[in-house]
Amino acid sequence: AILTGIQDDVLKIANKLYPAAGYQLSPDYLSVAREYFLSDVQGLNYSNPSLAASTINDFVAEKTNNKIRDLISADTITDLTRLIIVNAVHFQATWKSTFTTAYEDYFKVTPDKRVKTKLMTQTGYFGYKEDPALDAKVLKMDYDKEGYSMVFILPNKEDGLQAMEAKLAETSLESILKDLRDTRVEVTIPKFKVEQTLKLKDILQKMGLKDVFSSKANLQGVANGDNLYVSDVIQKTFINVHENGTEAAAATGLGISLTSLDESLRYFYARSPFHFILLNTSSNFILFKGHLASIPEN
């Protein structure tokens, strides 16, 4: 199975197919879903939208440690609904090098607007570079679980996020990670939590994926003989970045720091909008990516 080598004790991925009760999916499609994506199958009575939505949402909540709730609302289910496909991802890990200090200070939403929030700081050795092509600083912080890191990309200009992300769209992940060097860095980032629900139909159509949302869709491989199309794609995300680490990780970080004592101290103060990428470094597989452009007061 494709997912067998990806999942571990910090990353959980769950897939499930919910066909309408009595609706026959293609045996070949079911075989691929089960063998390669470890998908379970459960028929639902879509004539009772509230119960169907509740069943799906309970599954998602369980698989995401109750961080994602109410993914599907009853009003998205109609008498034409034949299949709902659910993918749930949950990641939880501690930093390899813990943040030692947390304090209240200001985050600049724009050069003229700032809000008070909680900042975290530590000094240690991290992958770091200054990228003139992006006009930004790049910092890679590892998690205690080997093979996972978060990359922070901070524009040099406080209002430079939009321009930098336009450049990022044309930049490969390999290029972003290239030339990172173990460097002694004083890191300050806000403690933040991002929760967002996106209906992706309009976004995907603007990207050119149009036929699949119309009668032109060719989904014969899913259910032979029926003219199926995709009605919507809904994504709900939850990301919580905080200061927690482990004692063992702090000791490991100290051991690493002894290799580069001649490096001069660099400063990575993420107190204005920045981009972040959570990735599996073994395969350079991106798990989550986004940006922090604003923080609620306190």
From TrEMBL:
It comes from the Eukaryota. Belongs to the serpin family. Residues 1-295 form the Serpin domain. Keywords: Protease inhibitor, Serine protease inhibitor. One of its GO terms (cellular component) is extracellular space. The keyword Phosphoprotein does not apply. The keyword NAD does not apply. This is Serpin domain-containing protein. SMART domains: SERPIN. GO terms for molecular function: serine-type endopeptidase inhibitor activity.
